# Entry
Amino acid sequence: MPSLIAKSPLDGVEPASHGPWRLSEADPGPIALVAALPGQAARASAALKKATGLGLPEANRIVVKGGVRAVWSGREQCLVLGAMPTDLAGAVVVDQSDGWAMLRLDGPAADRVLSRLVPVDLRPSHFGEGQACRAPLGHMQAVILRAGEGFEILVFRSMAKTAWHEIETAMRQLAARSHA
Amino acid sequence: MRIDGKGLVDRSTTLGFRFDGRDYVGHEGDTLASALLANGVRLFGRSFKYHRPRGVLTAGSEEPNALVEVLEDAQKTPNVRATVQEVFAGLQAQSQNRWPSLSHDILAVNDLLSPFFSAGFYYKTFMWPRAFWERIYEPAIRRAAGLGAHSGRHDEAADEKAPAFCDLLVIGAGPSGLMAALAAARAGADVILADEDFRMGGRLLSATEEVAGQPAPDWAASVVEELQGMANVRLMPRTTVTGAYDGGTYGALERVGLHRPAAPDLPRECFWRIVARRAILCAGALERPIAFADNDRPGVMMASAVRAYLNRWGAVPGKAVTVFANNDGARALARDLVASGIAVAALIDSRDGASTAEDFPVYAGAQVIGTRGRKGLREITVRHSAGTVRLASDCLAISGGWNPSVHLSCHMNGRPVWSPEIAAFVPAEGAVPGLTAAGAARGRYSTAACLADGLEAGRAAARELGFKAPPLTVPVAEDGACAVTPLWAVAGRGRAWLDFANDVTVKDVKLAAQENYASVEHMKRYTTQGMAPDQGKSSNIGALAVLADATGRGIAETGTTTYRPPYSPVSIAAMGAGGRAEGFAPQRFLTSHGASVERGAPMIEAGLWYRPSYFPRPGETTWREACDREVAMVRDAVGVADVSTLGKIDIQGPDAARFLDLLYTNTFSTLPVGRVRYGLMLREDGHVLDDGTTARLGENHFLMTTTTAAAGLVMRHMDFVQQAHCPGWQVRFASVTEHWAQFAVAGPRARELLNTVLDTPVKGEAFPFMACGPVGVQGVAGRLFRISFSGEEGYEIAVPARHGEALFRDLVARAEALGGGPYGMEALNVLRIEKGFITHAEIHGRVTAFDIGMARMVSAKKDCIGKAAATRPGLSGEAREQLVGLRPVGAVKAMQAGAHLFNPGEDVTRETDQGYVTSTCYSPTLGGFLALGFLRNGRARHGEMVRLVDHLRGLDYLCEVSDPVFFDPEGGKLRA
Amino acid sequence: MRITCPLCGERDRREFTYYGDAVYADRPAQDAQMAVWDDYLHLRDNPAGQTRDLWYHETGCSSWLVITRNTVTHAVVATALLAADGGDGAGGAASGGSISAKLKRSGAKKPAARKPRAPKGGAA
# Structure
């Protein structure tokens, strides 16, 4: 019996470069939504720490250990990237590995590109290493992670092409400013 | 003509451009206006109503006259201010509102007819007969109206919009803005300095004075350079702050590509939303004209504009210049002209006793009472103490004083305050929270005063923001006198223009007052004063002064009209940047999208999703053929459809069942693990919110499905119910819609197909209708649900989305081998109508559980959202329109949702309306049209005839009312 | 307009969905008088001045917020999470619950009692 072929949300799209910026599809690994049950945040955090070495992050923060990251994604909840913990006391775990597409935007002052679409202050002075937020990207819901000079962007899988198109358009237009 | 060595244009560059078909040369640093003036062009356009020849009046964004069309291939942008448009190589522009040419304009005849075109002309003339309104008057007026014209083509150019954030926004980069920005930036604040000009410095760029011992433009350049080098400063030239909004948000329009040749992807403009904790309005002041007879001829300009063209651009405005002013400030212009070797015909100072000790003739206590020159000024008439004199002059520089640019301070309902000392309105303090004004924008006119005021405002803002302001001293600068004696309009005969852009005269305003349009807002609308693209920037205050005089009230009492955003015109394209075509809304694609497109399926939009409509096969010429085949395929063999768009919500926790009991009308705590139940959800007002199935995957683990349309709505509702009503309950939920690709496999051969892909085959009795459970799908962990939206034995099989495309292709291939295949939305709709299954066509927001025959699903044993309200009188009973099935009597050609139902023999009126049709289809299974609809007391009327009427589509025939389940009412096929 | 989400921080109001007066969070008991339900569902004050209403952080953290703001000046005076701090795990009633208690915990002011206003002006 043939096994089912797996495809990433953007199906191996070639990275796009405009000006000094580069857009590519990234592989975040397994994605687990970990949400503490009401009133059990401390217990859930301890259980998550035992399982992954990472507690629940504070609001708008990312915590990292080894290849695993916990990204704040709402009240007393986070997305664990790179691991799929199970049976966490005081928390529920939902596998969302295939629900998100991750795009990576690299290049100097990449916040200028993403700012065209995300109405949040993304300048390094205000959104630096270790920060993440839930915010709109155009008309889409997104999770934005600071990644060096650039960003990793999680959007719903079905909208990955639109997100790609919009970010690439922003890159093109910004690049055209300096080239003209 | 240019004066060598003068100005801030780079004479070493030559930029060829075209205006009205003629080629000219300008230089780096030129505007279209400065370049044309330097080339001796004086006539720029025709006025709006009387088509009078008009030249440049100002040197800034307030320009009312010199509006042109800029051409770019087949595109044209109308109403571009020549005073703002920068010259670049290849720029093409043309004048507007003239035909056939600028110098010979047919509609100039309006000027001769002007006695008939007074204020209110249209209101008075085109009233009778009423029948002429739409057919004759409106088309005729529309043809003659308007200024520039649009190309009529789609604008394909790029635009941008973006947010920006800062501690302090400084609006305007003149002397006060530069000092404010410098003070705050040196203190460490995050500063944005925005200025509408392409070069920062404001009026210092036109000045001949010195600041801190340097020529004023050099000092400005040095400050700009320092600011540019600071990491905490963002300079935004070519950016007009257009509006002040709530919460420290400012709108701003940046000209990105308008000053250079078009290039791929280069945006024309960027609309910024700047969020600032503090803002300082350093927008300066606008010089105001004086109204006198024939004051609108080309060659009549604002004194500040003449000074700017002379000093900043080195452009000679005329051979013999006259200055007419009511204040001290304009005197500097006359001296500058003399110093540049340009003849000053006279300075006419309206003030008695004004000093006459100058190197040029001065008429004190005198006024200009008339001008001559058809397409350009030739001569002016001056009335002075000893009589009248005619002076040959081709340029008249006028200055009626200054109006601080209070606009932004009024955008949040604030009213400016009249300051008698400077005879002008100044911003009211605190009118926009977080915004203060400094410099000329609050009536501090001299350079020294502006610098000092800007510095103090910048320091104060830094302190308020928590920064320690370093010591900084005010640069030494001129502190000249700015005394002004108000003069709004010179008394006398002839038409004296107030609003150049809309051709409003002193007489028009007086007529408005006489006809009792005495409120400034009424006068504005009656005369159209201030309603042109320039919004009366240079004319509104003069007009209201004339109105105040005509009504005998003071100016303060008369008040201003309301200042609203935007400060200067903002193109809709910039505000809506990115919203065209694909950018209008996100596109959501199924994992099977590519496979469906390969099969030629037309994709239709379902919310944001794209779903296959049908899958045509060779030889099929209409959608109906494909749809009928797909329906038969499901009824007779097996069909495969992607149903991943349905919302899927994972619900977990010890209180999950209890939470579902609160959300749904029916009970879920009693649902066994491994089973699925249909549920109905109400809004709190007792109407149906959504429906769908929920599976119990474990003791404390459920999976809810919502309709595609309501997925987001249901999530919001669940968040509300939990956070408002039961925040302590031990339950959390999350959307897994995107994680799972889910396919319906339906038909008599569905199980046979499934068993070829499942690692462990399912058996009918072991996996009955409404069973669910985990399955292995070719080694992938998936889920299987035995549910059906078609009435056939049906399953929905789910795998993680990465495997979705592969599974779809595999299922379709296997289905085809069994005489089936994929089916689309059309067939899906037919299948569900045949079974009387509802969608949001039926649960459209006004129906109750009773209406759709599900009243018994509202459990009596527990509370649920909407239960109390659903018991209200009027939400159930015979008067309600209830869900029914409808079948036409005899053969009909069409049946459409939206048709209304009436009793046979009754009139077709709103009062006799019995209900309406919500869904229709042609049923190949039953060989005829079917419909679902709502009929008054419908459940008691099965078997009756009703009349279906659709005036829009011309349908009018009888239908038989029936149970909404047309096919297999016992459900035997489901449970096979 | 800017709204400070207690979790996400200050954001543009376009990220939020407005849902009307905060009294809607104060759900009557199921067996309450129909007049009480009618009041709860349909009757709202329309003050010129301070108001408290519900907003949903739709494109952010999905929290429901109670926002105190001024309808005249548009000033946002306070924002608070609708749900108190995670609850005590003891459950609680789904209806007849007291929003005032929740608001007390989240630091917001108790809503003023709603009573008919006297007509403005005129002879007493």
